[in-house]
Amino acid sequence: MLYEKIGNDWDNFLEKECSRLYFQKLDVFVEKEYNTKTIYPPKGEIFNAFKLTALSDIKVVILGQDPYHEENQAHGLAFSTPKGNVIPRSLINIFKEIREEYNYEIPEHGSLEEWAKQGVFLLNTVLTVEESNANSHSKCGWQTFTDNVIKQINKQDQPIVFLLWGKQAEKKKDLLNNPNHLVLVTSHPSPFSARRGFFGCNHFRLANEFLRENDVKEIEWKL
User: Fold this and answer.
1) Which of 73, 85, 112, 131 has a CA that sits 20 to 30 A from residue 178's CA?
2) Angle, vertex CA 127, rays to CA 124 and CA 132, nearest 5
3) Is 66 among the catalytic positions?
4) What's this model's pTM, rounded to 2 decimal places?
């Protein structure tokens, strides 16, 4: 079984979701993949976003696509990579935008765990991937799971900012209809599309302004 209790308020939702037929099929598929191929992230890190950011603590949701597909890059948090590794280009562009908004230096590492601990839910729409094979698990059931995760977050009363970057993330906008929340959309931070809207989007300042207006502690984006 891929999911094991994580010890916060996500458990009730996750237990119900994992009992559904689609997830049981997904579980069988992914377990077999781990047993026969090199799959990322490590199995014990698939649900890291849920472990580090409880449902009731979410302030900001950043949606990624599927995990990084090379060794030592993915660890269960969208866009993040463990300390000690080369920072991926999309994440460098995220740091560049923060530098423009706040004049912060670009960090020497790519771990976003400190964001997650502050309430930034870093969710990939697909949670596993085969080594060197991008999008290889995009049609095995993860999309159904993460759509249901997004719907669950949408139900929350606390004000939440959703940052949807790129066409895949923008597709999730239709799942978000709670007037308590703020939804911001722009291009993906990848080198191929960052200049089509991501650079200059001001999303990090806008997110904090919304939180401040709703008497919620702002995110410290500096790492």
Assistant:
1) 112
2) 100
3) yes
4) 0.97
- The active-site residue, picked from 11, 66, 174, 215, is 66
- Residue ranges in the chain whose pLDDT is less than 70: none
H or E stretch at 40: strand 39-40
pLDDT at res. 55: 98
Question: Count of CB atoms within 10 A of residue 170's CB?
Answer: 16
Residue-level pLDDT at 79 = 98
**Helix H or strand E segment including 124:** strand 120-124
Rg (CA), the chain: 17
> Tell me, what's the pLDDT at 25?
97
pLDDT of residue 102: 98
Asked if 143 contacts 125 with a C-beta cutoff of 8 angstroms, the reply is: yes
User: What secondary structure letter does DSSP report for 56?
Assistant: G
Both structure tokens of 114: 């400190």
Phi first, then psi, for residue 159 (nearest 5°) are: -65, 130
β-bridge pairing 39-40 and 129-130: antiparallel
DSSP codes, 152-185:
HHHT-SS--EEEEESHHHHGGGGG---TTSEEEE
Q: Closest Cα partner for 219 from 125, 126, 101?
A: 101
d(CA 193, CA 153): 28
CA–CA dist 184, 170 (Å, integer):
9
pLDDT at position 160: 98
